[in-house]
Write a sequence for this structure.
């Protein structure tokens, strides 16, 4: 099953909350072998994606008013929740170019794309996996994708903190108990406990995020 046809993402696309279209640069190659790569000038290992098929593929697309042209590359800005929120709320059209081989001709970077985005500090064989992560992260923020949109406000990274621990039935499993406060019915205490857990979890697991949160909250760093 395609990742685009399953789960909330598949449902959102089926309901036309968003649309995903695929364009193959090979369809715009002009030689008989439909090549989209060539050797880099100056020598070196590997092949580079040629500029002509990429430019032609992008230029074949309709242009919506608010459009961003994104190249998925390890050299780009890190993909994070603020970026996904910006893309979801600020644009009508995202054109995502997936690199292959050793990357793309620099003229694509300088004269075509408006943003470079990275999934992390590692290298994959292609850009489709990071592109799928970007699509998933953007579409889930669009109105109507998530049933309870209020849940988007309390999850990891939305307030600069990681999410709090969550439990479901049974209240006891193999001797491990759900925290009493969650069974108390006291919503004020539950909210306080969850906030404390978010802060502590972020401090323990992501001190970088915790430090940023403290700075933005004007609280002293412990």
């Amino acid at each position: 099953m395609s990742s685009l046809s399953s789960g909330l993402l598949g449902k959102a696309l089926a309901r036309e909350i968003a649309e995903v279209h695929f364009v193959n640069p090979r369809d715009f190659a002009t030689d008989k072998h439909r090549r989209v790569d060539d050797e880099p000038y100056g020598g070196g290992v590997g092949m580079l994606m040629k500029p002509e098929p990429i430019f032609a593929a992008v230029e074949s697309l309709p242009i919506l008013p608010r459009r961003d042209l994104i190249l998925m590359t390890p050299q780009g800005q890190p993909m994070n929740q603020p970026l996904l929120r910006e893309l979801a709320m600020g644009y009508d059209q995202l054109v995502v170019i997936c690199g292959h081989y050793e990357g793309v001709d620099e003229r694509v970077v300088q004269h075509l794309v408006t943003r470079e985005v990275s999934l992390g500090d590692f290298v994959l064989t292609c850009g489709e996996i990071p592109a799928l992560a970007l699509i998933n992260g953007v579409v889930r923020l669009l109105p109507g994708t998530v049933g309870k949109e209020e849940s988007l406000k309390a999850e990891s990274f939305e307030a600069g903190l990681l999410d709090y621990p969550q439990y479901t039935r049974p209240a006891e499993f193999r001797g491990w108990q759900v925290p009493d406060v969650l069974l108390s019915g006291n919503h004020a205490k539950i909210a306080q406990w969850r906030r404390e857990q978010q802060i502590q979890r972020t401090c323990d697991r992501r001190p970088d995020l915790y430090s940023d949160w403290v700075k933005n909250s004007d609280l002293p760093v412990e």
